[in-house]
Amino acid sequence: MLREIRELGFEYAELSHGIRISLVPGIMEAVDAGEIRISTLHNFCPLPLGINHPAPNIFKFTAEDARERASALKHTLKTLEMAERVKARLVVLHCGEVEMRDYNEKLEAMVARGERESSRYRRLMEEMETRRERNKDLAVDLAVDLIERIAAEAANRGLLLGVENREAVEEIPFDHDLPFFLARLPDNVRYWHDCGHAQIKENLGLIHHAMQLEEMAPRLAGFHIHDVVADAEGQHDHCPPGTGMVDFRTLKAFVRSEHIKVIELSPGVPSEGVRSGFAHIQSVWGAE
Questions:
Q1: How confident is the model over 49-65, as pLDDT tens digits?
Q2: What is the pLDDT of residues 92-138, one digit of tens each?
Q3: Strands 220-225 and 227-231, bridge-based pairing
Q4: Looking at residue 212, what is its pLDDT?
Q5: The CATH number of the domain where 138 resides is what?
Q6: Residue 229: CB atoms within 10 Å
Q7: Which of 4, 126, 215, 260 has a CA positioned 20 to 30 A from the CA of residue 202?
Q8: Contact yes or no for 218/191 (Cβ under 8 A)
Q9: Which string of DSSP letters, residue by residue, matches 142-174?
Q10: What is the share, in percent, of the chain residues with pLDDT greater than 70?
Q11: pLDDT greater than 90 at residue 82
Q12: Non-local CB neighbours of 5 within 8 Å, separated by 6+ positions
């Protein structure tokens, strides 16, 4: 797996939330042999025993069940241990969610049907925003408490944490809360900008992509880079850069050489798509 990534032209790789425990010995062997370097891990990595599919939200930081939060902490600490072992710089986190109805699916379906400017869409959006604001305080407090504990261990291991912006409307931190959420957390907890997620939120009418990135630039650690394509069935992300609607040229103003940059594509993208997407982002953002 890692050799294929290296042969595609990448010096670094991210270890995702789909890494089974059975893959760990081979990963360690490849890293120790110098075949690849690891930039980042995406929590939870490796997957909990018995889980064999990508599962970044299997244990939620916002769960009211103390046993689930304890499992989230336990397996995040295992991710930190793995990150230190492979000399990664940062661990990307999902922070949980507010329990809500299926607003995300309804809003996505209306956008796909071209109804974003309708009064019905505006009413549904207002209802969604009212509900999640009313219910967010406990979820945010639980997530902050857990991340503070994780951040202390990350600091001991010389690691950064990256709070990722999310694509679903119920997931925290909500976009307008990002600066306040991070202000409650230690300095080694940074903002992680997912270009596809931000574009999905812009298409829903919730944010302006470039303005959000500009606001979060002082705390920005890095990027998940992928594109978004929309059709009658909805929005599809994890597409190669340059094939969709993300305006990477406008985002370039906020990209720095010290930022970590991870191209995060769908497993179904063929090798030529990976190469062309990599070439596109290099041509727009530069080679660093």
A1: 888 888 889 999 999 99
A2: 999 999 988 899 999 999 999 999 999 999 999 999 999 999 999 99
A3: unpaired
A4: 97
A5: 3.20.20.150
A6: 16
A7: 260
A8: no
A9: HHHHHHHHHHHHHHHTT-EEEEE--SSTTBSSP
A10: 100
A11: yes
A12: 13, 36
Residue 212 has which token pair? 């959000």
Number of domains in the chain: 1
SS3 call for 12: strand
Query: Exposed (0-12), middle (13-18) or buried (19+): which is 210, by Cβ within 10 Å?
Result: middle
What's residue 205's pLDDT?
95
Instruction: Identify whether the C-beta of residue 280 lies closer than 8 Å to the C-beta of residue 240.
Output: yes
Name the one residue in this structure whose structure tokens are 């661990």.
Answer: 91
Q: Is 13 helix (H, G, I), strand (E, B) or coil?
A: strand
- Which residues fall within 8 angstroms of residue 259, CB to CB, at 6 or more apart? 220, 221, 222, 223
Bond prior to 44 in cis (omega within 30° of 0): yes
User: Which range marks the domain in which residue 11 is found?
Assistant: 2-285
Structure-block tokens of residue 254: 């906020």
d(CA 107, CA 169): 9
Structure tokens at 136: 């967010």
